Every structure is written in structure tokens, then in C-alpha cells.
Amino acid sequence: MKQTTLKRPHVICHMCMTIDGKILANRWPKLDGPKSSIELYETTAASFGVPAWIVGTTTMREFSGRPTNLKRAKLPIPPGDHVADSQAQSFAIGIDEKAALRFRKSNVDGDHTIVCITSQASDDYRAHLQAAGVSYLVCGSAKVDLRIALDKLYRVFGLRKLMLEGGGKFNGSMLHLGLIEEISQIVVPIVDGGIGVSSFFDIPGRTPAKAAATLRFKSHKQLPGGIHWLRYRVINGKRF
User: Fold this and answer.
1) Can you tell me whether residue 222 is helix, strand or coil?
2) If you count Cβ atoms within 10 Å of the first and of the last residue's Cβ in the chain, which end, N or C, has fewer?
3) Hey, is 14 helix, strand or coil?
């Protein structure tokens, strides 16, 4: 049988960071220029005009609500993907290998929610997502295969561009697999200095012997308050 070639959207990783590469904005003092780091991030991200963003489980927990026990599914849930809103125009996408997210509505700030799950997700969890109006894609057995996830986002929802807005570990996993085409970096004039604080890319597993990726410079823009916006194209990612 001929193997199907996986397709995927053009992925842009867009993040705000200190000059030492840390990304936890709740540790930062007030910035000069923008009203807040959130405003800075959202206005620059919106300028791309990309209708979908993707994050890992930890980041998506901020939007999914507090943990609750799942109700028992009244009926068996058919295997496979579930598209709750075929007319949606914008999307909030989360990865959830352990059925940890507890959405109570179908969207995040108007963006239709999609969760990438595994085939081991229980009927109770799938029923919970369906009741909330959330779409889900089955993207692996024990773990979510990010290559399959991007392929399904491309084929099922027609996504051609995607904003990666995750934490360091999720961004690092995407870079590790060579799934990022472009890096957009907002650098604020702050030094974090924290040891163990999440950075732009935290590559999973052992410490690599070589750099993770080679980049090609695209553009630079200076923003008010000594903030710099740099964009790069990823030439080749290192697969360890």
C-alpha cells in the first residue's frame, strides 16, 4: 500500500521574551510603550492575520477551566475524529494526551476549540468534549503525534497557516521535529535571570550537542519602549 504523504500548515512560532530568552511575562515589570505585555503580544500576533493558534496542555489549561470529574458517557462514543463546528473561521488548538482539559464552552475568545487527543481517551472524556461543543482529532495511540496532528488540521479544517504560541517545552518539541517554518521574536528590554524558568525553546530529552536549528534573518522592526521585533525563517531544524 502506498504511504500517504503527510501535509501540514505553515507554522509561525511567535513569542515575547526577555533578552536572556525567558518567556514568563508575569515575572516582568511594566513595559515602557505598550500598556501591557499581553497587549504587546496580541497586537503583534494579530498583524499576521493567521486564523488559528496552537498550544500545549499546560498553556491551554489557562483557558479550559478548573479540573472537574468527568460524567459517565450515556452512550458509547464512536471512534475517530469529531468536528463540532464545520463553519468556524478561527481556531484555538490544544494538545491533550491525558484527557486533562475540561472545557465548558466551544470557543476561546470566539475561536472554535480543537483538542488533539489519543485513541486511549475514554468515552467519558470524548462525551465531555462533545457536550461542550469542542472538536477533537485522534492523533496517535499512547501519545499525540504532532506530525499527524498538523496533517489533520490541514486536511480536516483546511488550515494553511498556524501560530505556535506555546510554552518552552511544547515549542521545543515542535522545533525538535522540524515542524516550524518561521520564528517571530519580540524582545523586551528586561533580564529575567531565573534558573529553570521557561525559555523560548526547551528541547525535550538530553542536552543536544549541537544547536537545534539554523535560521535566516527576514526582518527587524523597532517598537516603542526599546522593544525589538525580529523575524527569521527556519532553514533546517536539528532532529536528535
Assistant:
1) strand
2) N
3) strand
Predicted TM-score (pTM) of the model is 0.92
The set of long-range contacts for 135-143, using a CB threshold of 8 Å and a minimum separation of 24, is 135/81, 135/82, 135/83, 135/84, 135/85, 136/81, 136/82, 137/81, 138/79, 138/80, 138/81, 142/97, 142/118, 143/97, 143/118
Name residues whose C-beta falls within 8 Å of residue 225's C-beta, 6 or more positions apart in sequence: 31, 32, 33, 34, 188, 189
- CATH fold label, 1-50+162-240: Dihydrofolate Reductase, subunit A (3.40.430)
User: C-alpha dihedral over 121, 205, 214, 7, to 10 degrees?
Assistant: -20
Q: CB within 8 A of 50, min separation 6: which ones?
A: 12, 161, 162, 163
For the chain, the domains span 1-50+162-240, 52-158
Q: What is the pLDDT of residue 237?
A: 54
Tell me how far apart the alpha carbons of residues 110 and 16 are, in angstroms, rounded to a whole number. 23
